[in-house]
Amino acid sequence: MIDNRVSLDLMEFVETKILPRYNEFDSAHNLTHVTHVINRSLQLARQLGADMNMAYTIAAYHDLGLEGPRAIHHLTSGKILIADSRLHRWFSNEQLKIMKEAVEDHRASASHSPRSIYGKIVAEADRDLDPEHVFGRTIAYGLDHYPEKNKQEHWERFMEHMQNKYSNHGYIKLWIPGSPNEKSLKQIRELINQPQTLRRMFDELFDRAVTAKQT
User: If phi over 0 gives left and psi between -120 and 50 gives alpha, with beta otherwise, what is residue 176?
Assistant: First the structure.
């Protein structure tokens, strides 16, 4: 029987030594984001009967590779996890191998299905597809990484990203049938097909994000 609790000493280690590293990342991948992914991972692990300590740690390490090039951050995150000898206190070599692969498999643009249930859990947890959350994170990323763009240029980048990732022809994939993300992804796709409605939402969220950055 899987214990529904995360080891307290593991949690103390992660919260003091790992999570603070997210304070250095952009606002779309910051401490709020990783905390959300951890919470969703634990919910899914509990539902699926997976190891809670493994799911917790995978979620905590999943974006650490953003300390390097974004394009390969999932691979770098896996290397960071497997190289962290401190984790041998809680996990076997076989568990760590599964955890490394899960971190590598979490990226939305991955060309293959996650290799284990743990990869599916973190991939699904990383995809909080509440429409306003998705739109807000996309805008936040654009403001952080392309400050030279004007509002219209941000809108064009936003729409290109929506089409490439979230549309009916986008690359995003969901790996756990019946998850809440299925309904949310359908809502996003409906909004992509209503550009006037989506533009009004974009304008409101964009103005709010700009104001927040100025305060």
Answer: beta
| Amino acid found at 9 | D
Q: Which residue has the tokens 């409605």?
A: 197
Write the DSSP string, 114-136. -SSHHHHHHHHHH----HHHHHH
| C-alpha closest to that of 105 among 127, 83, 86 | 127
Round to whole Å and give the CA distance between 52 and 43. Answer: 9
Q: Does pTM top 0.70 for this prediction?
A: yes
pLDDT tens digits for 73-132? Answer: 999 999 999 999 999 999 999 999 999 999 999 986 666 789 999 999 999 999 889 999
Annotate 188-205 with b (16+ C-beta within 10 A) or e (fewer): beebbeeeeebeeebeeb
Which residue carries 């390097």 as its tokens?
68
What SS3 string covers 168-205? CCCCCCCCCCCCHHHHHHHHHHHHHCCHHHHHHHHHHH
Amino acid at 151: K
Does the CA dihedral 197-37-81-86 come out positive or negative? Answer: positive
